[in-house]
Amino acid sequence: MPTVFNFLGPLTNPGRPRAAAVGCFDARMAPVMAAVFAERGDSVLVLRGEDGLDEFSTAAPTRVWVAQRGTVREAVLDATELGLPRATLADLRGGDAAYNAGVARRLLAGETGPVRDAVLVNAAAALATQGPLDGDLAAALRAGMARAAESIDSGAAAAALDRWLEVARAL
């Protein structure tokens, strides 16, 4: 159940990342969050799928608030503009921890489909915030998707997860 902490969490992150992709389930609050990030000088994409997802959706157009260099601009992008097929919300629905872990492992092993598409475009949004966002946002997202796909396809993403799990288990 969404609460005020869904808004406050990204805004009060003690790590203060200077660049990020942040989902927002409430379309009224997304531009407010973007304005706070912009005022702080952060480079952030605030994302809300028109289907209500608090991320870049592959099931509907996505509204994006681009916060960078003290300004905010709004755009609407569709995953189909990025070369991705339309998904359904059922395609993206998760389950319990064991189910979700299996989905993640299959994705990192190279399984294609709607989950991979959603992961690629959301990873691309985060990657895009590392550079200037005042150009062609769709082009930046396509480039980020290629980088994310290479990380998965090369095995680098799976190897990073394995290293993280090894450290977590050791603790």
From TrEMBL:
One of its GO terms (cellular component) is cytosol. One of its GO terms (biological process) is L-tryptophan biosynthetic process. The keyword Amino-acid biosynthesis applies. Keywords: Amino-acid biosynthesis, Aromatic amino acid biosynthesis, Glycosyltransferase, Transferase, Tryptophan biosynthesis. The keyword Amino-acid biosynthesis applies. One of its GO terms (molecular function) is anthranilate phosphoribosyltransferase activity. Pfam families: Glycos_transf_3 (PF00591). Residues 1-157 form the Glycosyl transferase family domain. This is Anthranilate phosphoribosyltransferase. The lineage of its organism: Bacteria, Bacillati, Actinomycetota, Actinomycetes, Micromonosporales.
